[in-house]
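Problem statement: downstream parser choked on a complex file, so we are re-checking the raw output for the flavin-adenine dinucleotide run. The parser issue turned out to be on our end (a line-ending mismatch), but while we're here, posting the original submission so the record is complete.
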Amino acid sequence: MSESKLIESDYDVVIVGGGMVGASVASALLQASETRQLRIAIVEGQSFDFNFAAGFDPRVSAISLASRQFMETLSVWPEIAQHRLCAYQGMSVWDADGTGAVDFSASDMGQAALGHIIENRVVLASLLSQLKQQPSLQWYCPNKLEALERLDDRWVLTMANGLECTAKLVIGADGAHSVVRNLCDIEQTEMPYGHRAVVTTIKTEQAHGCVARQRFMSTGPLAFLPLLDDAGGEGYCSVVWSLDEDAADQVLGLDDDDFCQAISKASEFCLGEVVSASRRFSFPLTQRHVNQYVRPGVALVGDAAHTIHPLAGQGVNLGFMDAAALVEELNRGVRRGLPVGDLSVLRRYERRRKGPNTLMIQSMRGFKELFAADSLSVRWARNMGLSMTDQVGPLKHHFMAHAMGLKGDVPRMARGIKI
Ligand SMILES: Cc1cc2nc3c(=O)[nH]c(=O)nc-3n(C[C@H](O)[C@H](O)[C@H](O)COP(=O)(O)OP(=O)(O)OC[C@H]3O[C@@H](n4cnc5c(N)ncnc54)[C@H](O)[C@@H]3O)c2cc1C
């Protein structure tokens, strides 16, 4: 995308950050019945170049059913589905220190799949390809927001190349190190998990059978997320291996053969030997949650508002639900004749999302600590808990329905309803 000339500098909404969540906000705003008339721009710091021929993206996401339904409502799903993705029908979770295990299956949930493992660039490229066809959407890309200043009822945004524009509402979708959040002095609670995620793609001896697998060790969880190759083969998995700093350094420093051996062993050879591994990357894992999602004329969504441990694959799913709930509230506000960026409208968004996001963040912290504990009584209790969950149908159903995004206040667009 080339940088736009400054044709119209006064916007109703400027979205800072055109990642998966920011792009979904733009798509939803441009399709909702009232907000589609608004003047909207996106400021995005990177220019994207998607090379699908270059093997699997090391960054993949487990996309929940609710997120899929959101993508369907936005008419982006058909494009996503043209790329390689894996609809996983099962999920196996087990405790390395005992016999506790739980197996979830799509058929138990009355669904064709529990979710989809999709490369992040597939989701983003599909959203951006749709947005590129929207002539009314103004792009500032690549360009970074550098300053924000309040002027009467609007914000003046200054970008890295000196361009300025104004907006009644600034949506911060600019990720974990959000500049919007910092410039607005929005405080957050930040707690490192003491883990780094080592991610890579592996080829395994046995086919994964479209089952996601996760082994919980006291050192951190190891997840094998099933991928389908271009020929539909089931020999590849995306790996997210959470480890403390020293262990992550050690694993990153291994040569390929030793890494394959180490990960085969760590996975208890659940898919036989790991035959090969692609380049390894690592990401520090930190829990963050803002104290306020909104300010007059400002709203935060996605990783700008919260980041969580990837052990349940929920980060971007929470972000998509933020996007869907925010646009639903903005659409309702415009219908009622309220100004865009009105605090009462934004507060409704905050009320809808803060509770579910807090619950998910706390649950992930609880899981992480529960499996890190090595006291005998805690290990016994968690093994019992896993086995009980496996045996008690309604409990299992309840957990899975949450993970699929089907419980609680699901925004209309994430239920497949156009607004
Ligand atoms: C190892 C790992 C595994 C994960 N697995 C899963 C999973 O299975 N399922 C799941 O749901 N989630 C998962 N997540 C979380 C998920 O990746 C994130 O929640 C998601 O990418 C956040 O999207 P976002 O659009 O909010 O932020 P980002 O993807 O960070 O996008 C922010 C955008 O803002 C732009 N930007 C930043 N600053 C500026 C600025 N000043 N001006 C203009 N633009 C700016 C950036 O260039 C970027 O494009 C995982 C995370 C990790 C680390």
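For whoever reads this later: The chain has a mean pLDDT of 91.
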